[in-house]
Amino acid sequence: MNIIGRKKEIDILGRLSESKRPEFLAVYGRRRTGKTYLIKEYFNGQFAFYTTGLPNVKTREQLQVFKDALVKYGHNDKTIPKNWYEAFSRLREILESDSVKRDPVTHKKVVFLDELPWMDTARSDFKSALDYFWNSFGSSMDDLLLIVCGSATSWIINNIISDHGGFYNRITKQIHLHPFTLDECDELLKLNHMELSRRKVAMCYMIFGGIPYYINLLDNRLSLDQNVDELIFNPDGELHYEYDRLFKSLFSKATLHMKIIETLSSKSIGLTRNDLIKYLDSKSGNGISTALLELEQCGFIRKYQNFTTSKQNYIYQIIDPFTLFCIHYIRKNKVNSWINILNTPSYNSWSGNAFEILCLNHIGKIKEMLGISGVESNEYAWRSKESNPGAQIDLIIERRDDVINLCEMKFSDDEFIIDKKYHQELINKMTAFKNETKTKKAVHITMITINGVKKNEYSDVVINQVCL
Question: Is the pTM of this model over 0.85?
Answer without folding.
Answer: yes
